[in-house]
Write a structure and sequence with these properties.
Elements (H helix, E strand, L loop, with lengths): L3 H13 L9 E9 L2 H13 L3 E7 L10 E9 L3 H17 L4 E8 L5
Antiparallel strand pairs: 1-3, 1-4, 2-3
Helix pairs in contact: 1-3
Length: about 120
Amino acid sequence: MITLEQLEEMFSDIAAKGRWDMTKPMLWGYFFTDSSPHKLNAVAPELEQLGYGLVDVFEAGVDPGTEPYYFLHVEKVEVHSPASLHARNQDFYEFASKHGLQSYDGMDVGLPAET
């Protein structure tokens, strides 16, 4: 699980490098995993109803002889603080558990596309 302390460190690191202004809307990507792409595709509409855009369901690169697994990637432009992102992560851990997915794997962040 991603801790609040890890998120505080992530935000501090971004601020220290002057990379982005995290008080502005950013593009947040969220990732779920499962051995069944069908399970991931089945939950995607529920996330879309919550305002997340479906990016893809794709197979993870795994070593030969390792059981394949898949990622569901959704994204949303929003503003987060470490505390709000921690709350979102907790919601997604619960979502993954409720739907019997192997995991909520975490998030990434980037600049939103220019409109």
